[in-house]
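Protocol step 4 of 6: structure prediction from sequence.
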Amino acid sequence: MMSADDRAQVLDEPFRAPPPSKPPIDPKTLVLPENASLFTRLRLATRILKVIPGNEGNPDYGQTLNVCLDLNVYATLVQRLQRSEDGRRMLSERPSLEAKDLDLNALERLPEGTLGREYARYYRDNKIFPFETTLKIKNDIDYIGKRYRETHDVLHLLTGYATDVVGEMELQAYVLGNLGIHTARLILTLGTLGQLKQPQSGVARSEYLRRVWAAHHRGRASKLFLDFWFEHHWETPVATLRERLCARVEQLH
């Protein structure tokens, strides 16, 4: 039986797990029809949750699950982006942080402390790979779902939250505060139940709750990150971008 911590990590990072050991869902059935009803979305989300254990290596499950649970949230975010020139341009040009669109070797040659250098080092040090998906992007909502997932690792760098269990929950709390993503709420709920049952990383329950609560407030106080063109800032220091996009922790106390 998969623990709450394990399931939370699976939902958050399906492309980082071991090879599949259970029959996967036919990719054709992962496609949601236009204007899919809540019942249809919940039914597909339930199917995905049932087959994720043993198929954590499938990169499409997480993105489809996000769309199933957050279709309305993404629609609202699209409307927010359409109100600004930069947001409209992003929806039109659809920049990508997928693995096929990145040259990590080139980024790692950039100066110390820059976003590109630290981004490439992050993948090397954690022995993981950038996000990738085979799902077709049919509309702006699909794109926002993809953009949300592929900015996950950039956010680790900007916020400073670690990639251990507690750090991942902090990042989910931050995202929940910043974007209102339901999938983040689900992951955070499952992860918190696991943490309260059996604390991880030597962090006491009270300390964990304090850190998660602070991360949520920090996300609410920070600027929207989803419409930011990280692709144009590889040579910008991480510290500069953190100052620009993320609320300071000390300002929240």
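Step 5 (inspection) to follow. Residues 1-21 have pLDDT under 50 and may be disordered.
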